[in-house]
Structures are given as structure tokens and as C-alpha cells.
């Protein structure tokens, strides 16, 4: 069930990123004061797309972890650290922010796998901050250029 939720969230993120990108390109074609709004929409689309990409990787890791059958033990994503540590795995966990997939060990502790690329969280945060800054500047310039209401 977790796998399905992650895949649907990634799909929703892809749709949202597409809508934001189309809105950004449309705003870019319009007049000059809309350039900051266009930048905010396009960078926001990038932030949503990178986060959706991370969710897609996370969903794939969960699918591999929940897959039973031949060769399913130890769980495939945890094999990257070697058989010694992989034999001590007693479960896994998912974190949505920062986006990562981790394994819990029998003696306590956990380790994060490379199932989700390391750039996903920093890129999402950086692009999100740039989006907020562009949106704030767009809002202040829109107030300054708006004609007075009579």
C-alpha cells in the first residue's frame, strides 16, 4: 500500500510540475512585469519535479523491499552494504523529508541506502527557497506597478 501511495504522489507531483511549467511559460510570454512571476512558476515546477523524482525512487525501493520470492532475503536495496550488515536488517523505514530509504538493524541503529539520489533533498530545498524569493519579489513589484483604484 505504501508503494501505491508513493507512486501516486510522484505522479501527482509530475502533473503539478507540468501545470506550473506551462503557467510559467505562459507568464514569460506576457508583459515585462510578469517575468518574476514566470521565474517563480518555472523554478517551483523544478522543485516539484525533483521531489517527485525522489518519490519515484523511494517507491521503487519500497517495491523491491516488499517483493517476496526467490532471492528476497536479505532485501535487495540493503545488499549494497554487504552480507554482514544485510543479515542484521530487521525492517525498513521511509522518510518523506528528507527523502530517503533506511534500514533498521537488530542491535539498534539504522543506515540510509543510496536508493534515492543524494541530490534530491538539497535540490528541492534550494529550488523551493528560490521560488519563495522570486514569488515575494513578484508580489512586491506587482503592488508597485498596479494603478491606483479610483
Write the layout of secondary structure elements.
Layout (H helix, E strand, L loop, with lengths): L1 H28 L5 H32 L16 H4 L2 E8 L2 E7 L4 E3 L7 H26 L5
Helix pairs in contact: 1-2, 2-4
What can you tell me about this protein's structure?
The chain is of the alpha+beta class and 150 residues long. It has helices at 2-29, 35-66, 83-86, 120-145; strands at residues 89-96, 99-105, 110-112. It has one domain (2-145). A three-stranded antiparallel β-sheet has the order 1-2-3. Helix 1 (2-29) packs antiparallel against helix 2. The termini are far apart. Strand 2 (99-105) and strand 3 form a beta hairpin. The model has no long low-confidence stretch (mean pLDDT 84). It is elongated, with a radius of gyration of 21 Å. The chain contains four helices and three strands. Keywords: Membrane, Transmembrane, Transmembrane helix.
Entry summary:
The protein is an alpha+beta fold and 150 residues long. It contains four helices and three strands.
Q: From the alpha carbons, calculate the radius of gyration and give it in angstroms.
A: 21 Å
Strand order of the largest sheet: 1-2-3
Give the termini distance in whole angstroms.
Answer: 57 Å
Report the average pLDDT across residues: 84
Described by strand count, sense and barrel closure, the largest sheet is: 3 strands, antiparallel
Number of strand segments: 3
Low-confidence stretches: none
Structural class: alpha+beta
Helix content: 55-70%
- Order of SSEs: HHHEEEH
**Overall geometry:** elongated
Number of domains: 1
* Number of distinct helices: 4
DSSP strand content: 5-15%
Keywords: Membrane, Transmembrane, Transmembrane helix
Transmembrane segments: 6-29, 36-56, 119-139
Amino acid at each position: 500500500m505504501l508503494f501505491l501511495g508513493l507512486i501516486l504522489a510522484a505522479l501527482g507531483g509530475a502533473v503539478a510540475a507540468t501545470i506550473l511549467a506551462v503557467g510559467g511559460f505562459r507568464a514569460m510570454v506576457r508583459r515585462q512585469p510578469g517575468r518574476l512571476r514566470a521565474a517563480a512558476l518555472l523554478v517551483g515546477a523544478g522543485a516539484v519535479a525533483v521531489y517527485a523524482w525522489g518519490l519515484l525512487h523511494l517507491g521503487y525501493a519500497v517495491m523491491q523491499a516488499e517483493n517476496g520470492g526467490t532471492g528476497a532475503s536479505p532485501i535487495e536495496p540493503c545488499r549494497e552494504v554487504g552480507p554482514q550488515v544485510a543479515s542484521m536488517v530487521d525492517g525498513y523505514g521511509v522518510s518523506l523529508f528528507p527523502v530517503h530509504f533506511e534500514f533498521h538493524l537488530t542491535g539498534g541503529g539504522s543506515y540510509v541506502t543510496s536508493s534515492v539520489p543524494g541530490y534530491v533533498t538539497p535540490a528541492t530545498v534550494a529550488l523551493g527557497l528560490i521560488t519563495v524569493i522570486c514569488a515575494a519579489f513578484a508580489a512586491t513589484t506587482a503592488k508597485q506597478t498596479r494603478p491606483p483604484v479610483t
